[in-house]
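Q: I'm teaching a short session on how sequence maps to structure, and I want students to see two examples side by side rather than one. Could you give me a first protein with its sequence written out and its structure tokens following it? Keep the formatting plain so it prints cleanly on a handout.
A: Of course. Example one:
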Amino acid sequence: MKKTVLVAAALLTCFTLTSNAQSSSANNNNNSNDPDNLAKEYFSQIMGVAASSTVNTKMYQFIYDWIGTPYRLGGSTKNGIDCSKFASALYEQVFNTTIGYNSRNIYSNVDKVSKSNLQPGDFVFFKIRSKSITHVGVYIGDNKFAHASSSRGVMISNLDDSYWKRYYFNGGRALTAGNLEETDDTLN
């Protein structure tokens, strides 16, 4: 009798583990076949950010398409682009928003955001050996940002790198209709 109960318990345990493994495998197959999840995982690995940060696959695709484009002051094509044109082109293509034509102008058109409150898609501004803003990039998550570097072209950098830490000025979020209404209310 004891043997029968033990064998039945062992079989029940095996059956339960097998069915759990099969349902877990089915869930993983559904996620891995979903194009959005595949894109998120891919950009997460390529850009070094958490998959949970890659919610806007259109933004990450845009950045990926431009990675390696050489820097050219005043440039706005894949033959060469500068930092503000890169940030502007990203906003026009991904968010359908015109934001500005140079880093100082872009800064005047954003809500200021502390470094600790940055979200993917926010701007990051730098004062490099200057008292005024000289560089802009777009935050992509996990302290990383995409930008057109004068030495290496369009690339992804880390805000924690000593160079970027030294020159970091502020973050900014593009003004939206909701932000503008809040601003109008505080003026009245």
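Q: Perfect. Now a second example for contrast.
A: Example two:
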Amino acid sequence: MKEMSTHMRPDTVSPARLSPPSWSCDDGIMSAPPLRVMLVDDHEVVRDGIRLLLNEAEDVVVCAEASSVREAVAVAAQSLPDVIVMDVRLGDGSGIEATRDIRAARPQTSVLMLTSFADDEALFASIMAGAAGYVLKQIRGDELVRAIRTVGAGQSLLDPAVTKGVFDRLRKGKHLLKDEKLARLSPQEERILGLVAEGRTNGQIGTELGLAEKTVKNYVSSILAKLEVARRAEAAAYLARHTTLPGA
């Protein structure tokens, strides 16, 4: 599966399927358990394609599938996946709603949003709902597997094709809308937040601003507290939502 096609015919929705956890034992010593992945998409052909792709990865196993918001929430509670590959648009609602409910019930489950559309608002809403990653269905198969492993390892991942426009807005002339939470930031915190939004690490920010990495870490903690968010990705999304180009 070289590429996830955006022109996929809708098939009849099939009921969710659960697969028991399975991993190999070698000479009586159990290897590390594979990453348990759940697929949520209202097109069966999409789920079939991703499942076939993941079947080739030894460290990943598809443990469950669902085709709707309601089904996704129920099946996730039963199957307890490590990662959920979630379509943004489902027949009975939004995958963002399902993500919010699933993460509220079990925060250790990471969600990777998969969509056909580069939509800034859906990106922001997904991050605020707790999604760890957001990629387009045009993604290559091997890149999708890497993305699943990345969010499964507790890291965040945003498709450059989606975020490029957001970061361009931040680079080309930051004009913050009047916002109560952003107004709490000091000028230094605003600079650091802008660099966080560009994907810089604490070390890279420290080098650019002439600060110790520990100092940057303290600034970031203060920024998260003032914006009332828990993660760097949420802070970046908050800034982007309240940033506009001159004349926009």
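Q: What should students look for in example two?
A: Point them to this: Residues 115 and 136 are 5 Å apart (CA to CA). Also worth mentioning: The chain has two domains: 25-158, 164-244.
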